[in-house]
């Protein structure tokens, strides 16, 4: 029943229904053309032209993203226009825009810049320094050292450490996740949260209104509040007479953050559901990754959480109270950063581009969804053609068959350029990682698809040098060893009906 309800609210079904209505309307107009056809057709053309002008005028949109929406609007004048206004634009209502502007102003004053560390990194590696400087300037993401980092190559290893740190909490626990689902993982976590809240620990939980739409019961925040836990839902899905509110539904909180006492911070690709720790088997073995930070860099995770908490709760946080108190011996520079769809800067996409374009020896990437624009495809193929060892790992068992088919539509161009592609045959790979030259790695929540890079709230962390970068590289190499390397011969053998579906899906890539 839950699967059926999820299907009923999916973007794919809504789009299909709108397309059917439009096709039916077309034939009705043909039948009635002599009476109302010319006027209705004129209105459709005017609507489409207005939307096209609006899309052309948007300078902050990626050209490939813009082009795909133009094609959709031309092919399906009414349906495409409606879909763009609801799911393609990044406009906000004035009230929502003012709320985010206020939060940004308040939090900006709390950020502690570290310009001296950029100088230190520049003396060590000017290329890495430029990557870090981009995030400092455009994502308000300070660079840190003296922060201990530990990488987890599986959800099972993450969960053991995660529970241990929750048990040690004595001041605060902040959780922000796209999906929370009752089961072993969440129930065990919740039992600790209830005890800690009863002991006076400040426990706050945020989840996404769509990501957890079918995993948590309606009004679940009231249940948590009855336990003494502060809880809020980001952007809940609801019926409203205000049409402008529906445009914001496309922006989801896809982040995965846990901060304990302002001193310990977890993030990565894992949500709080049993498949992420393989207690529940879905799509074979679920491969995911995470890491924990201890020390000054945790402050950036606290600020990211508190910004969202301020929006969903209306409260003004005390950022200074979250400043970490300890320093650690480390061999890496650390730079947590967040991404928002509400500005003109596509931070995650640009950070990925920097890693790819500055690679000298190798770039290894894992992503559950490979739905890339022309610029990203060009960066990958140019690196491979220049002699860089470029390898990408995607799932061997997909969670969404249509997105898997779309992912495979990019293989041919990449393989022809010399990119090596592996499919993780043990199961579904959900990890989002980039690593290059044993010098830089990015791990976090942002997939290599349009939704993560342009429409979702995301968070990642860049690591410059140190053992954690090598840990990421070794883990991806293990994925190569257990995976299947895709060949050009296999891709060329794709049946005609699948190729036709891939062409169609490429048109609608921004929706997936």
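-> sequence recovered:
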């Amino acid at each position: 029943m839950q699967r059926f309800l999820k299907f009923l609210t999916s973007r794919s079904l809504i789009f299909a229904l709108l397309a059917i209505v439009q096709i039916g309307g077309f034939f009705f107009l043909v039948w009635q053309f002599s009476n109302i056809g010319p006027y209705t057709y004129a209105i459709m053309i005017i609507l489409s032209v207005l939307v096209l002008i609006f899309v052309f005028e948007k300078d902050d949109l990626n050209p490939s993203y813009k082009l795909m929406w133009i094609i959709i609007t031309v092919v399906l004048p009414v349906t495409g226009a409606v879909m763009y206004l609801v799911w393609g634009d990044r406009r906000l209502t004035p009230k929502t825009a003012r709320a985010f502007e206020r939060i940004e102003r308040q939090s900006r004053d709390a950020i502690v810049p570290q310009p001296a560390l950029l100088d230190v990194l520049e003396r060590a590696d000017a290329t890495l320094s430029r990557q870090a400087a981009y995030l400092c300037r455009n994502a308000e993401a300070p660079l840190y050292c003296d922060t201990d980092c530990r990488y987890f190559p599986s959800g099972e290893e993450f969960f053991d450490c995660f529970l241990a740190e929750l048990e040690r909490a004595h001041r605060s626990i902040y959780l922000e996740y796209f999906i929370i689902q009752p089961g072993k993982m969440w129930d065990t976590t919740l039992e600790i949260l209830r005890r800690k809240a009863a002991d006076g620990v400040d426990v706050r939980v945020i989840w996404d209104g769509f990501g957890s739409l079918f995993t948590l019961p309606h009004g679940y925040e009231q249940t948590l509040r009855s336990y003494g836990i502060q809880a809020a839902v980001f952007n809940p899905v609801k019926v409203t007479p205000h049409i402008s509110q529906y445009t914001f539904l496309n922006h989801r909180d896809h982040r995965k953050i846990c901060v304990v006492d302002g001193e310990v911070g977890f993030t990565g690709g894992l949500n709080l559901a049993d498949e992420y720790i393989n207690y529940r088997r879905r799509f074979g073995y679920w491969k995911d990754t995470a890491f924990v930070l201890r020390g000054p860099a945790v402050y950036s995770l606290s600020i990211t959480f508190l910004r969202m908490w301020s929006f969903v709760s209306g409260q003004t946080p005390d950022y200074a109270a979250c400043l970490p108190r300890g320093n650690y011996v480390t061999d890496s520079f650390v730079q947590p950063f967040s991404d928002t769809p509400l500005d003109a800067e596509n931070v995650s996409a640009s950070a990925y581009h920097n890693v790819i374009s500055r690679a000298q020896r190798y770039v290894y990437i894992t992503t559950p969804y490979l739905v890339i624009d022309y610029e990203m495809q060009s960066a990958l193929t140019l690196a491979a053609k220049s002699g860089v060892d470029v390898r990408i790992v995607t799932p061997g068992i997909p969670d969404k068959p249509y997105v898997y088919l779309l992912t495979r539509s990019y293989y041919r161009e990449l393989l022809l350029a010399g990119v090596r592609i592996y499919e993780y045959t043990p199961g579904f790979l959900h990890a989002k990682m980039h690593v290059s030259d044993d010098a830089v790695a990015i791990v976090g929540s942002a997939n290599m698809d349009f939704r993560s890079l342009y429409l979702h709230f995301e968070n990642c962390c860049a690591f410059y040098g140190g053992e954690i970068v090598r840990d990421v590289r070794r883990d991806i190499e293990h994925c190569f060893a257990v995976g299947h390397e895709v060949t050009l011969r296999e891709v060329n053998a794709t049946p005609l009906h699948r190729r036709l579906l891939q062409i169609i899906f490429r048109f609608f890539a921004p929706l997936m």
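The CA atoms of residues 223 and 229 lie 9 Å apart.
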